[in-house]
Structure to design on (263 residues):
């Protein structure tokens, strides 16, 4: 087993072939520079796994894991620019979705109602969990029975759409993909959108940091050379620079204002 890449954060089944073709281009560019890597993307069931592997040459993590832990053992390479309407290329936000019958409720009313259940993709997620703190005017801890572990943004959407949950925060890039591929988006209402934040970091292990610039160049080249249909499928506009210091804002309130009491 050699150097490898894993790009699972936006790897919907409908998009996987396009992600594979992007990696084919990156892989070829790296090979031309004498950097040998596994020819296929890894897709482990535990998507956290690659972030602690010294052989990681290209990966993507969430902002909260990056700033709280992953950044200590990995090097920041940049962020994908998905063309969202943000002041800084590569930034993103979350979309707060609710059951249509609750569309007239305010965030305060939703949080105060013990019957409102919240679908969360992961307690390690910036876009699906910590961002919910923006809905709270002050730190608040909700009863554990109001929390549903959905396991992913798409599942959170479907839970709200089917009434299993009433509120969720969906990564805006994922939301745009789901608008194209999942009819459940028509069965929820939008409560609002969060503030902009730095996009999901592209990383390599610190052991591969010496290859960092070569990897950046390979990714940027592969995006440019990708067939238009694949660029459109992935919404990719390019590779944007990223600064580790910008992710420090994710440590501050209101992020994390909302929490759930232990079971």
């Amino acid at each position: 087993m050699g150097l490898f890449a894993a790009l699972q954060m936006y790897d919907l089944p409908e998009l996987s072939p396009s992600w594979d073709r992007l990696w084919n281009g990156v892989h070829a560019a790296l090979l031309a520079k004498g950097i040998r890597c596994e020819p296929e993307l890894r897709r482990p069931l535990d998507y956290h796994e690659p972030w602690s592997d010294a052989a990681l040459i290209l990966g993507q993590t969430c902002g909260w894991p990056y700033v709280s832990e992953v950044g200590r053992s990995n090097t920041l390479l940049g962020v994908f620019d998905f063309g969202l309407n943000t002041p800084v290329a590569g930034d993103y936000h979350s979309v707060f979705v609710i059951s249509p019958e609750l569309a007239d409720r305010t965030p305060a009313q939703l949080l105060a109602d013990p019957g409102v259940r919240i679908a969360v993709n992961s307690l390690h997620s910036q876009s699906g969990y910590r961002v919910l703190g923006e809905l709270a005017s002050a730190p608040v801890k909700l009863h554990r029975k109001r929390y549903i572990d959905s396991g992913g943004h798409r599942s959170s959407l479907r839970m709200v759409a089917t009434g299993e949950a009433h509120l969720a925060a969906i990564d805006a890039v994922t939301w745009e993909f789901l608008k194209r591929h999942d009819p459940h988006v028509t069965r929820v209402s939008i409560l609002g959108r969060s503030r902009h934040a730095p996009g999901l970091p592209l990383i390599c292990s610190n052991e591969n940091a010496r290859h960092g610039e070569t990897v950046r160049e390979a990714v940027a080249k592969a995006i440019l050379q990708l067939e238009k249909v694949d660029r459109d499928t992935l919404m990719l506009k390019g590779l944007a620079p990223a600064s580790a210091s910008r992710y420090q804002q994710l440590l501050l309130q209101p992020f994390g204002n909302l929490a759930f009491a232990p079971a």
Q: What stands out?
A: The chain has two domains: 4-83+198-251, 94-195.
